[in-house]
Each structure stands twice: as C-alpha cells, then as structure tokens.
C-alpha cells in the first residue's frame, strides 16, 4: 500500500519514527501506539500509515485494510490485563466532533469499571422527533448512498 505523509502531522512524524511512541502493533497498513493521555490504562491509538484527515477521506480499500486490524489489536489489549471488562472504540471526525489531530485515528479505550474515569454520554432527543422526522432523515441519507 502506497503511503503518503504530511510533514506537519504529528501522527505522520510518529509513523516515520521522528517522534517516539510506545508502539504495540505495526504492519504495512497501520501503526498502533499508546495514547500519551492514557484515558484508561492501555488506551491505544490505531492510525493508518497513509495520511488521511478523517473517515470522509477513506476509500473502500483503505477502510477495509484499517478496520480489519482493529479486532486483533483490541483483543491483544483485552488479553493484556485481566481486569479489562470492555472497550470503547472511538473515531472523531472534524473539530466539532472533538477531532484534535487531523490524521484519522481510532481510540481503543479499555474499560475496567463503569467508574474508571472515562465517559461517553448521548442525550436522548427522541421526544423531539415524530415518525415523519425520522423518515425525512432516513430518505436524505438513503439518497446519498453510493453503490
């Protein structure tokens, strides 16, 4: 797989070895390394070795290659600590969605308890929607689906 790099991207610099990292897995497609923040112990980032800003820049081949490696890495993280009870896999796209490094990456965040200093909450807005609202959204998305 041909890789492209952005000389100003911190993740590209990590991939090229210009910035050290605690790498847990690497092949020709991805590099997985510990997130320096360690939201919980074992918090790992999986990044494609080609510079793509976000999920919207993936083609089907890159998506298949990157996504197919995530279960292997997630299982290794889980097996590394018998106290891991679950895992959040998070991918933020765009500043409004909390993306802070604009090189696509997936956070694999081990979960130890429901009080382990990591949280994700979703507000329930269902009371604001009627069936016709859901149908309108559904149809707009369906109209944009590519074969």
UniProtKB/TrEMBL annotation:
- The HIT domain, residue ranges: 10-120
GO biological process assignments: nucleotide metabolic process
**Molecular-function annotations in GO:** catalytic activity
Q: Where would I look for the motif Histidine triad motif in this sequence?
A: 103-107
* Coiled-coil annotated spans: none
Q: Which SUPFAM superfamilies match?
A: HIT-like
In this protein, the active site sits at: 105
Q: Which Pfam families does UniProt cross-reference here?
A: HIT
InterPro entries, per this entry?
HINT, Histidine_triad_CS, Histidine_triad_HIT, HIT-like, HIT-like_sf
Instruction: Supply the name of the protein.
Output: HIT family protein
Query: What is the source species?
Result: Levilactobacillus bambusae
